Amino acid sequence: MFVRHSLDHGNPIIGVSIKAFKSSDGDILFGGGNDRLFAILAKGLGRPEWAADDRFATNSARVKHRDVLEKWIEDVTRTKTTQEWLDIFDGTGLPYAKVNDLMDTTQHRHAENRDTHATAFGD
């Protein structure tokens, strides 16, 4: 389970695309932190040419051009729902996940199965 507030900034050393991006109805986390995974991400986003672009062909180049790449990625991710992105990347080998808000987290099957809920009583 991922909660957005802890994932806003990505990792400045490992890679640009290891962070949460806005979808049309929520957030999705991608783990495209190496050249192979970035190529999978770019293809899934419908932008396979990004992987061959000199600005994005290597991790160090992606870090150098972080601002433009992250904007472009989010411009694309905002065009579909989180579930649509989950379906697109299913089976591709790219690490990805829906980012849960507080309600999603409390209703997640792992939280329910571990009996993490408590009822508070007040006056």
Structure description:
A hairpin with a 4-residue loop joins strand 2 (18-22) and strand 3. Residues 1-9 have low confidence and may be disordered. The chain has a single domain (2-107), classed as 2-Layer Sandwich (formyl-coa transferase, domain 3), CATH 3.30.1540.10. It contains 6 helices and 4 strands, in the order βββααααβαα. The protein starts with a strand and ends in a 10-residue tail after the last helix. The radius of gyration is 16 Å and the shape is elongated. With 123 residues, it is of the alpha+beta class. This is Succinate--hydroxymethylglutarate CoA-transferase like protein. InterPro entries: CoA-transferase_III_domain, CoA-Trfase_fam_III. GO terms for molecular function: succinate-hydroxymethylglutarate CoA-transferase activity. Keywords: Transferase.
**Roughly what percent helix?**
25-40%
Q: N-to-C SSE series?
A: EEEHHHHEHH
User: Can you say what the CATH homologous superfamily is?
Assistant: formyl-coa transferase, domain 3
Strand order of the largest sheet: 1-4-3-2
Strand content: 5-15%
Main beta sheet strand tally, sense and closure: 4 strands, mixed
Total count of domains? 1
The shape, in one word, is elongated
Question: What is the C-alpha radius of gyration, as a whole number of Å?
Answer: 16 Å
* Class inferred from helices and paired strands: alpha+beta
What is the averaged pLDDT score? 84
N- to C-terminal separation? 33 Å
CATH class: Alpha Beta
CATH architecture: 2-Layer Sandwich
Number of helices: 6
CATH topology: formyl-coa transferase, domain 3
Stretches where pLDDT falls below 50 for ≥5 residues?
A: 1-9
The number of strands is 4
